[in-house]
Amino acid sequence: MTITLKEIKEKKKVEMSFYESSIKEIIKDCELKEPTKINCVFTLKGDKVSIKIEISGLLSANCDRCLENFNKDINIVEKRDIKFDEFGEEFDISEEVFQDILLSLPMKFLCSETCKGICPECGKNLNYEECSCKTTDEHG
Ligand SMILES: [Zn+2]
Ligand SMILES: [Zn+2]
Question: Does residue 25 carry a pLDDT above 60?
Fold first, then answer.
C-alpha cells in the first residue's frame, strides 16, 4: 500500500484503511489470521509527515510452554514523524506496518501468564489435568 507525498501536501491529512494479507508471510512462529485491519493517518506537519498506524487483528501461535495453539488479539498503535526527504515521492506503508508488528511480538508466546506447561515426565498438559509425577523443578 503506497501513498504519495503530493497527495498529503495537497490534502494536509489523508486517512486510509486497508486489509493486509501479506503480513502473515513474514512472521515465522505465528500466523496472523485474516483479516488484519490497518488504519493509517498521514498528517502534514512542517517539513515532516506525521504517521499514525493502527493495526488490529488476531494472532494465532503455539504456546512455548504447553504447545497448544491459541489466539490472541493484537492492537497496535504507533506514531512517528518522517521527514520529506526520507519519505520520498512515494511511500510504502506496508514496510512500516511489518516493522510495527514484528516489534510488538513477544519473545515467547504464552497462552496465558499462568500456563502450567507440560509435565516433562508424563507429557500431560498440566492446565487440564494434575499428574502425580514428582518433578524436582516445579516451575520448569
Ligand atoms: Zn500454554
Ligand atoms: Zn506428570
Answer: no
Question: Who surrounds ion ligand 1 at CB < 5 A?
Answer: 63, 65-66, 111, 115
Cα angle: 50, vertex 8, 52; to 5 degrees: 30
Q: How far apart are CA 109 and CA 123, in angstroms?
A: 19
8 A C-beta contact, residue 139 and residue 117: no
Dist. CA 68 → ligand 1 center (Å): 6
- The residue extents of the domains of the chain are 2-104
Q: What is the pLDDT of residue 31?
A: 79
From ligand 2's centre to the CA of 128, what distance in Å?
Answer: 12
Residue 116 CA to ligand 1 center (angstroms) comes to 7
The pTM assigned to this predicted structure is: 0.76
Q: Which three cell numbers stand for residue 6?
A: 503530493
pLDDT (tens digit per residue) in 71-81: 988 899 999 99
Pairing of strands 48-62, 30-45: antiparallel
Ligand 1 mean position, distance from CA 11 (Å)? 48
